[in-house]
Amino acid sequence: METLTTTIQSVPLNHYILLSAIIFSIGVIGVLIRRNAIVIFMSVELMLNAVNLLLTAFSVYRGDASGQVFVFFIMALAAAEVAVGLAIIVMIYRNTNSIDINVLNRLKW
Fold first, then answer.
1. What share of the chain has pLDDT > 90, as a percent?
2. pTM of the model
3. CA nearest neighbour of 80 among 38, 35, 45
4. Which of 55, 57, 82, 87 would bridge 67 by S-S if both were Cys, CB 3.0 to 4.6 A apart?
5. What is the separation, in whole angstroms, between the first and last Cα of the chain?
């Protein structure tokens, strides 16, 4: 455990912030630009992972484990999101034979 903490702390905190910002930005761009439901779903997961990386880095630098505990709960939420999200995508594909989100207008009442 000691070597992991010293390894993480040997990299400046600014590098973790920059990496997390880049990963989060890629996720936001993926959500805004792409029309494929699976790609949008993966982009949301990418944004969650960027936040997890930042929370873990801050937690190690402050010496407080509460950030890492919060990351554990975010990962549990992401697992539930994957289960529900993939089920929704499968049902959309069964009804429309496409995973393009523009086709979802046909599902209105």
1. 44
2. 0.80
3. 45
4. 55
5. 56
pLDDT digits (tens, 9 = 90+) for 19-58: 999 999 999 999 999 888 889 889 999 999 999 999 999 9
CATH 3.90.226.10 assigned to domain 2-107? The reply is no
SS (H, E, C) the chain: CHHHHHHHHHCCHHHHHHHHHHHHHHHHHHHHHCCEHHHHHHHHHHHHHHHHHHHHHHHHHHCCCHHHHHHHHHHHHHHHHHHHHHHHHHHHHHHHCCCEHHHHHHHCC
The answer to whether residues 20 and 53 touch, using CB atoms and an 8 Å cutoff, is yes
Give CA–CA dist 37/40, Å, rounded.
5
> One-letter amino acid identity for 28?
V
